[in-house]
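Side project, low priority. Logging it here so it doesn't get lost.
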Amino acid sequence: ESHKERKLPLQGSFALIGWLHSKRLLDEFFDRMAAPKKAKILALEISQSGRLIQQFDQLDHESAIDVLDQLGAFHGNTQFETFINALSYVTDVDAEQFQNLRDELRKIKAIGEQGTAYGRMLRLNRIKRLAEIRSAS
């Protein structure tokens, strides 16, 4: 199947718009267009974080975990999956690889901690696990 024969899904179209334009231009565009709110959010996420994910291997462990967290990778919704799949339409990002990494990092716990201490320990444990994963590959 040639590149010209493949059709870009709607998700990919909004990803492409986000990839090519700044937040300011996207805000103006979506204010004028009757597009679903989810489309605007996706385009803005691609615009703001797409290049960070594309260069994920160059990020230090702490920044990498923080970017994943900001994109909802550790939450029980489909926000991150939608983002990473859409990004894979317009870049060389391997969506499956990121989904596998997300699944591995979501297994991490902070046993014995509660409240804000739980959140801090969970982040540190995820950073440690990412470091282990990276050093093994």
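Brief comment: Residues 15 and 87 are 6 Å apart (CA to CA).
Revisit when time allows.
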